[in-house]
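WARN retry 2 of 3 for item q-0093 after timeout on previous attempt; input resubmitted unchanged.
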Amino acid sequence: MGLEEYFNSNKVIDLSFFNFQNAITAAYFADKDFKILRVNNNFCNFFPALGNLQGVYFPEVLKVLGLPDNVLQEFMKAMDDNGRVLLPKVEIEQNGETKVYSLLSTTTSNPDFPYLQGIQGQFVDRTNEDNLRKEKEKLIQEQLRNQELIKKKSERLEEISKRLASYLSPQVYKSIFEDSQENTKQHKRKNLSVFFSDIVRFTDMSDTLEPELLAKLVNNYLSEMTNIAIEFGGTIDKFIGDAVMVFFGDPESDGDRQDAISCVEMALRMQQRISELQDYWKSLGIGNEIQVRMGIATGYCTVGDFGSEQRRDYTAFGSAVNLAARLESLALPGEILVSEQTYELVLRDINCTTYKTVTPKGFSRPINTYTVQQDTLSVASKYPPKYKKLGNRVSIDIFDTTDINAAIVELKEIEQELERLFKDTENTSSDQ
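OK item q-0093 returned
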């Protein structure tokens, strides 16, 4: 037997196709005209409904498997142009289930082995791979949705947090939301300087003013007082109608002496600001001058988070709190009355005069009290007129923009005052 005859024998051909037959893919072999010569066992296992494919035109097989015409055209064109084609995703419906395959076909040509010349290819089952990909994409989409949901919830929580901040003193807010919550849950014994204030004859005022005007007055007054309290580092305990309670020494403290000084200087600045606001309040229709009484006391208090599960309050209890409230009620309109402990801490920095010895309600012993002099030099020098030149720009506060004519008049007055102030500043600089 000659060598060529040996290689062309069926036994050798079968041996050549051994790997073909045992491939884990659905393999086929066709002649150059796409007529199927043989398929392996897995081809029959993959597509049992096709039956005997011997001599069948391979594109017809693809059509029976459900490939659309455009895909068939793409297949044939690629084979004509390149001699090979890869269809990465072929979806075939089988028994109500969509199976996913990739199809690789290539032209083989070797003159030494004519029995191997033709077209061979294979279907690779990618169903599990595709399912895993879909699951991964589903998980990614779910993660993206969760991230978006988390983002929205975070934005909502931030919004609520900002709204909540308006109901809390900045120090308390910081303790709750930035530091450990244990700081606010603990009840501590601390030396505090406690401030109380209220508007003189406020009850009569609330009975005579229209609700809208009363609300505007109170909101403006409390906003101004709040800004000053925050500026000096006070912890705003609560508002009770027009009454304001502020304490120094917790959650942050600068030392007993400096806490007391800051508390008194805050009160002085508040009285100063009340004087500055009189014209504005008159423009609203407030007939009588607004006057405020203030009381300050220093002493050890219990401070922390008190209340029920439904309603809690970060506040202070102690004789200093009670005394500050009593001193406020004993003060004359526009007066700041302080206790002896407060006086001893601030006397080197703030001018005070002896007022009188009193025995407030709830106290068994007489209390020495002192009046803060509102012309205290340290405070007057510390708070010059609030006009600040920034290059060619000036920052100012406009209380009410509803009356544009009044605003224009106010701006004109401010302009004239600024020109005078800046001229004086330039003259002082040139003299130096």
